[in-house]
């Protein structure tokens, strides 16, 4: 660990990188379809509740650990454990996080691969005039084809590896500085298009009409797991990125900005997708196929559909790329700090994730297992451990120094981490797991 730890160019680069990590397939692919599956309003409300009361406080704690640890997630936790005279076993939080990131990327890259095929097909007008059945058949053709998925998964992964191989400042920093503004711009264009052409009232009604009878334990577990997933919490991405943050940047303001942008973008994505889906008489609860069947079919029926469909899938591709790099970075940073050259680390983890991707392409069960174990178990568990570590086990004056909020807010934050997050997450985790395993 001789070389000094690198740092972002400015606070803004951290915000862009962390927002790039947070905003991804989770916001644009997963959030709308799970909202559809769990019936809208009540689910969205519970999800927002999890973001504010658990996600935001845990994000501050995770950034804090990264910045105070000033290293990759594993060495950061180890260093903080030693400094605070706690067991070295805590480094498991970092190690499990690295594993979770790689496991997520093993199915994430496959979905991002589908997005790449759609980017190409939408722009070439393949969906113009196509019915939902035709697009559905095409999607089934894609997900049944080992070769097509393998090709796109490999291409997407290569892009990801090329960025991280370039390092933190030149690779990740530069990439997010260019891509994130494009993403915001495209999103606004699409929102405008959707408001002009879609059925906004039906969409708003669906997303905001609260019916608590639909909020069962599985829905709550999914919403909570998704709050961690969408904010990239509990697995070291935010810790790794936080370690590159300048010492004088405000943890509370940056965390708030990232969480707010992520939530806003999930809602905008919903408000861009559902109006188009409803306007074309399609179903909201179309499962993982919502974005890949209903939406392209809807675009295909609309004027300018090839252009806007192309813009849409490019946007999703950008969002996926900026998240994928943060999924693999903790592992690469760890290997690099352990003395392995960055390029070698990138190659080794790239092969591992590539193989894992093959497994998820080969078997839908493996795909679902990787998704469920990470989002519903590993991230919430990692999140509680981070909350407990920072709020109970670190020296409180060190923690207080790092967080620039008023004493009143600090107390609220501390108790959210000490009690609310661990208890709420444990209850939802256990109740949801019982229901999920019983299915
Ligand atoms: N937050 C990303 C998304 O919503 C996924 C992700 C999870 C990225 C965990 C990094 C770490 O798509």
What does this structure look like?
With 439 residues, the chain is mainly alpha-helical. 81% of the residues lie in helices and 0% in strands. It is built from 18 helices and no strands. The chain has helices at residues 11-22, 25-37, 41-69, 73-83, 91-123, 132-144, 146-165, 168-197, 200-208, 217-230, 237-243, 251-279, 290-301, 305-337, 342-362, 364-393, 396-402, 407-438. Helix 5 packs across helix 16. The model has no long low-confidence stretch (mean pLDDT 93). Bound molecules: phenylalanine.
Rounded to an integer, what's the Rg over CA atoms?
Answer: 21 Å
The proportion of strand residues reads: under 5%
Small molecules (ligands, ions, cofactors) in the structure? phenylalanine
Mean residue pLDDT: 93
Per the principal axes of the C-alpha atoms, what is the gross shape?
globular
């Amino acid at each position: 660990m001789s070389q000094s730890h690198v740092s972002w160019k400015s606070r803004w680069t951290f915000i862009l990188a962390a927002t790039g990590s947070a905003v991804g397939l989770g916001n644009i692919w997963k959030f709308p379809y799970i909202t559809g599956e769990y019936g809208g309003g009540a689910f969205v409300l519970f999800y927002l509740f999890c973001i504010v009361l658990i996600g935001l406080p845990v994000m501050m704690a995770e950034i804090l650990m990264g910045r105070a640890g000033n290293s990759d997630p594993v060495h950061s936790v180890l260093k903080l454990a030693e400094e605070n005279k706690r067991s070295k076993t805590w480094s498991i939080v970092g190690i499990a996080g690295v594993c979770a990131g790689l496991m997520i990327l093993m199915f994430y890259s496959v979905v991002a691969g589908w997005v790449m095929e759609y980017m190409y097909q939408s722009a070439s007008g393949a969906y113009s005039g196509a019915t939902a059945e035709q697009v559905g058949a095409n999607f089934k053709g894609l997900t049944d084809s080992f070769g097509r998925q393998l090709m796109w998964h490999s291409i997407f992964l290569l892009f990801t590896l090329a960025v991280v191989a370039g390092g933190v400042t030149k690779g990740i920093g530069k990439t997010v500085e260019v891509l994130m503004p494009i993403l915001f711009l495209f999103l606004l264009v699409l929102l405008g298009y959707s408001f002009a052409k879609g059925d906004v009232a039906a969409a708003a009604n669906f997303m905001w009409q609260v019916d608590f009878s639909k909020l069962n334990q599985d829905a709550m577990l999914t919403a909570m797991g998704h709050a961690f997933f969408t904010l990239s919490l509990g697995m070291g991405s935010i810790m790794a990125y936080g370690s590159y943050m300048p010492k004088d940047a405000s943890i509370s303001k940056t965390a708030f900005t990232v969480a707010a942008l992520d939530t806003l973008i999930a809602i905008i994505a919903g408000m861009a997708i559902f109006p188009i889906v409803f306007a074309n008489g399609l179903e909201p609860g179309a499962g993982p196929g919502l974005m890949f069947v209903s939406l392209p079919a809807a675009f295909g029926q609309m004027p300018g559909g090839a252009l806007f469909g192309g813009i849409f899938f490019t946007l999703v591709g950008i969002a996926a790329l900026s998240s994928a790099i943060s999924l693999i970075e903790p592992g690469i940073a760890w290997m690099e700090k352990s003395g392995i050259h960055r390029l070698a680390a990138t190659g080794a983890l790239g092969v591992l994730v590539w193989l894992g991707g093959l497994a998820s392409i080969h078997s839908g069960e493996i795909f679902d297992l990787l998704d469920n174990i990470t989002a519903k178990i590993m991230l919430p568990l990692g999140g509680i451990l981070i909350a407990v570590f920072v709020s109970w086990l670190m020296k409180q004056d060190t923690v207080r120094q790092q967080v620039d909020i008023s004493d009143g807010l600090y107390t609220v934050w501390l108790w959210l981490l000490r009690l609310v997050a661990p208890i709420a997450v444990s209850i939802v985790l256990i109740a949801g797991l019982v229901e999920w395993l019983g299915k």
